[in-house]
């Protein structure tokens, strides 16, 4: 094992890529601190001591979804008592609140609604933009883009262009889950395939829009599936350079239907973030999404290769429906304080990683 | 920037370069100081020599988390080469929440005339201990407030009954502040009080109420509680009587890093005299519903304090990770920062829960947590004898 770490250390020092086999060996290793050390090294070379966050607000416009993924506690069927769809007026109010709270970004994703027309989503973007043209809208996953092309009977490329014209600024990286077909067929059989997700995102990047990339881990996948997932992201990033950050999402088992799933341990969470940093040499940023990790682990992750703590995230629903016990929002001061306590420099950024203020 | 090696190179890398002789005298002054301090500490630990207060403070405030973790993990591996992580099946029974001390960091206490003040009767306590026995428990952690009227006969009767009914359960109960309170109300010396409690069945004493063993801090957060010397006095007396105890530290309230270090060294100095502590348990102040309020310690602060505890207290065998205050995820990570024990399964816990922190874990959860980190889970007694590996 020591040899592996020495070899990887040399590779990082010389800006060389680590192989799939090496990534797998790291997942199988229990040497958490050595893995963390490598990731910290890799991150330091890319980002120094800077740790990014932004001030944002989530708007989950509907929880009604035709796709019934078993890992999801958020989706409801049409007619369910607790199903909801926000009216444009609600969305406008939330955007106004966001602006009043100093947000620079709206993060908006929702279910695949059976009856809302494509025009609704365009109106939604226009509504938010009308509140403030300065608000960056980071919205929709590749899954939604694919769905919009089907309901509007047009190509994904046209969908992307229309959304962009209506105000879409970039895309979050959701819906990637795990690309491996065998696992994907079990946890989200109705969702688009991994190949399709990558294809849509490639089109998105080719139109000039940036996105993030996620990986949902800790359900039925094994370590090879995680490496496979990251390999496909690394390959796509080589072609497009359109990914901003990699966000491993720790699966939350409460209220979901994944058999035998127990949730992600702290060690696995830190290892996965760290290995993401080491393996994805062509990604500039690794993000710890505190909503699903908890703030203590997210902060600790700053010593394990992570350089982004996401945002203040007002009113998050999806992770909380699955039992995340983190708060629904966090004050900017608290994020700054936690970053400082990690010995790092807090930097407020916009969605595209332009630095707004160094604290 | 002077010289060829700059701050852009992380210390882990700098150190490994240094080990491999690649530096060739181009280290800038600041980095050299840092590296020399770390090397000095590393050398002492390798020779199993104790580090001093200055070095401990440097680790806590200056060194990087992973570096401190590696040092602590090295000591944990040396002390526990069998790669086990232990836990005890236990339950808290808080016999009363009525307390004269009224500490500012506490959300559990009530005054004697409060509507929700309580004192459990014997039957309720027996029923709770029966539940503990039914789930295979071996340790009873009974603690309460500093009750204004309960004298020694109340405790003697209770402990005798418990010992008779539940011989398989170790009474690991009270705390130094309670012992002093009982002695005072009963016109006994502390030594007499402890001896009588022991005779009635008290087998060991948990290390609660230590908070921070620096009286300036105690004045701020718990002005009515015994000072640090009395805490130490009770513990040393318990050790003399052959009772093992643990020691705790509650950090993250108003103390400074120097106070944390002082606390650790005071514990270490007691241990040098008595060797009676089985374990050290640092946990962080939980602010909700307390007079003190504020924020809880961050994850990194907890891990650093835990690791420095492991390094300073090399004369104490076990360091407990606190899932009750940190949650399961952090407790698992803590096993790489010096922790080798997860404390109890805590069938019931009220004090921390009152302060807005209510993590729950079953025995299966704990076993799973330990395995997930690559260790062998083992159930133990209060005195750290292994009962069963999983």
What does this protein structure show overall?
With 359 residues, chain A is of the alpha/beta class. Chain A has a single domain, classed as Aldolase class I (TIM Barrel, Alpha-Beta Barrel), CATH 3.20.20.70. Chain A has 15 helices and eleven strands. In chain A, the strands form three sheets. Chain A has a four-stranded mixed β-sheet with strand order 9-1-10-11, with helices on one face. Chain A has a four-stranded parallel β-sheet with strand order 2-3-4-5. A three-stranded parallel β-sheet of chain A has the order 6-7-8. In chain A, helix 4 links the parallel strand 2 and strand 3. In chain A, helix 1 packs parallel to helix 3, helix 2 runs antiparallel to helix 10 and helix 9 packs parallel to helix 10. With 390 residues, chain B is an alpha/beta fold. Chain B folds into two domains: 49 residues, no CATH class; 306 residues, Alpha-Beta Barrel (TIM Barrel). Chain B has 15 helices and eleven strands. In chain B, strands 9-1-10-11 form a four-stranded mixed β-sheet. In chain B, helix 6 links the parallel strand 3 and strand 4. Chain B is globular. The N terminus of chain B is likely disordered. At the A-B interface, helix 3, helix 11, helix 13 and helix 15 of A face helix 1, helix 4, helix 12, helix 13 and helix 15 of B.
Largest sheet of chain B: 4 strands, mixed
- Chain pair forming the biggest interface: A-B, 37 and 34 residues
Estimated helix fraction of chain B: 40-55%
**How many structurally independent domains of chain A?**
1
- Name given to the CATH architecture of chain A: Alpha-Beta Barrel
CATH domain class of chain A: Alpha Beta
Beta content of chain B comes to 5-15%
SSE-based structural type of chain B:
alpha/beta
> How many angstroms separate the termini of chain B?
54 Å
**Regarding CATH, which class of the largest domain in chain B?**
Alpha Beta
Q: Output the strand order for the largest sheet of chain B.
A: 9-1-10-11
Low-confidence stretches of chain A: none
What share of residues of chain A is helical? 40-55%
Main beta sheet strand tally, sense and closure of chain A: 4 strands, mixed
Q: Provide the spatial order of strands within the biggest beta sheet of chain A.
A: 9-1-10-11
Evaluate the radius of gyration of chain B.
22 Å
Query: What average pLDDT do the residues of chain A reach?
Result: 93
CATH architecture of the largest domain in chain B: Alpha-Beta Barrel
As for the number of domains of chain B, it is 2
């Amino acid at each position: 094992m020591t040899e592996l770490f020495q070899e990887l250390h040399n590779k990082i020092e010389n800006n060389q890529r680590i192989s799939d086999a090496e990534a797998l060996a790291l997942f199988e290793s229990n040497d958490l601190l050595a893995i963390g050390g490598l990731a910290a090294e890799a991150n330091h070379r890319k980002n120094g001591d800077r740790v990014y966050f932004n001030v944002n607000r989530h708007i989950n416009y509907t929880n009604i979804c035709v796709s019934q993924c078993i890992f999801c506690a958020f989706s409801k069927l049409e007619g369910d008592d607790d199903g909801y769809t926000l009216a444009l007026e609600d969305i406008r109010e939330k955007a106004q609140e966001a602006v009043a709270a100093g947000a620079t970004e709206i993060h908006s994703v929702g279910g695949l609604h059976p009856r809302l027309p494509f025009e609704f989503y365009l109106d939604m973007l226009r509504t938010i933009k009308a509140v403030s043209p300065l608000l960056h809208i980071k919205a929709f996953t590749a899954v939604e883009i694919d769905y919009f092309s089907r309901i509007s009977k047009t190509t994904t490329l046209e969908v992307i262009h229309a959304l962009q014209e209506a105000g879409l600024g970039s895309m979050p990286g959701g819906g990637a889950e795990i690309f491996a077909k065998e696992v994907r067929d079990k946890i989200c059989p109705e969702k688009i395939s991994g190949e399709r997700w990558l294809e849509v995102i490639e089109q998105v990047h080719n139109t000039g829009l940036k996105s993030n990339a996620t990986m949902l881990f800790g359900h039925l996948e094994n370590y090879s599936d995680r490496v496979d997932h990251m390999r496909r992201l690394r390959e796509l990033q080589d072609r497009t350079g359109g990914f901003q950050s990699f966000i491993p999402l720790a699966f939350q088992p409460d209220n979901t239907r994944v058999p035998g799933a127990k949730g992600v341990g702290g060690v696995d969470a830190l290892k996965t973030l760290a290995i993401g940093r080491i393996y994805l040499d062509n990604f500039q940023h690794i993000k710890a999404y505190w909503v699903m990790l908890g703030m203590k682990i997210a902060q600790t992750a700053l010593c394990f290769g992570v350089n982004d703590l996401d945002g203040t995230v007002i009113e998050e629903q999806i992770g909380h429906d699955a039992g995340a016990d983190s708060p629904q929002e966090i004050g900017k001061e608290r994020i700054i304080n936690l970053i400082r306590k990690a010995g790092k420099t807090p930097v407020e950024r916009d969605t595209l990683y332009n630095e707004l203020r160094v604290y | 920037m002077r010289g060829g090696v700059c701050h852009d190179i992380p210390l882990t890398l700098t150190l490994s370069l240094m080990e491999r002789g690649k530096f060739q005298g181009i280290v800038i002054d600041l980095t050299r100081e840092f590296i020399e301090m770390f090397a000095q500490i590393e050398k002492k630990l390798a020779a199993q020599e104790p580090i001093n207060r200055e070095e401990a403070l440097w680790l806590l405030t200056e060194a990087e988390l992973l570096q401190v973790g590696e040092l602590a993990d090295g000591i944990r591996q040396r002390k526990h080469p069998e790669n086990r992580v232990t836990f005890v099946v236990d339950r808290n029974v808080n016999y009363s929440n009525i307390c004269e001390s009224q500490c500012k960091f506490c959300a559990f206490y009530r005054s004697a005339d409060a509507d929700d003040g309580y004192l459990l009767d014997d039957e309720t306590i027996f029923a709770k201990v029966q539940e503990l026995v039914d789930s295979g428990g071996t340790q009873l952690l009974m603690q309460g407030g500093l009750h204004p009227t309960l004298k020694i006969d109340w405790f003697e009767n209770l402990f005798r009954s418990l010992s008779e009914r539940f011989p398989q359960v170790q009474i690991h109960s009270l705390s130094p502040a309670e012992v002093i309170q009982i002695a005072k109300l009963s016109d006994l010396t502390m030594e007499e009080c402890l001896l009588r409690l022991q005779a009635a069945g008290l087998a060991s004493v948990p290390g609660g109420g230590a908070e921070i063993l620096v009286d300036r801090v105690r004045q701020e957060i718990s002005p009515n509680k015994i000072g640090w010397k009395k805490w130490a006095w009770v513990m040393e007396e318990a050790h003399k009587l052959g009772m093992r105890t643990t020691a705790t530290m509650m950090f993250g309230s108003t103390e400074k890093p120097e106070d944390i270090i002082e606390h650790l060294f005071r514990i270490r100095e007691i241990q040098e005299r008595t060797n009676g502590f089985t374990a050290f348990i640092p946990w962080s102040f939980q602010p909700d519903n307390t007079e003190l309020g504020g924020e809880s310690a961050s994850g990194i602060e907890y891990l650093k304090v835990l690791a420095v505890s492991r390094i300073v207290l090399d004369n104490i065998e076990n360091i407990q990770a606190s899932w009750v205050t940190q949650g399961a995820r952090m407790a698992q990570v803590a096993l790489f920062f010096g922790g080798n024990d997860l404390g109890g399964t805590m069938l019931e816990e009220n004090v921390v829960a009152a302060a807005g922190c209510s993590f729950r874990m079953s025995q299966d959860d704990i076993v799973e947590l330990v395995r997930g980190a690559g260790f062998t889970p083992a159930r133990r007694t209060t005195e750290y004898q292994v009962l069963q590996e999983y």
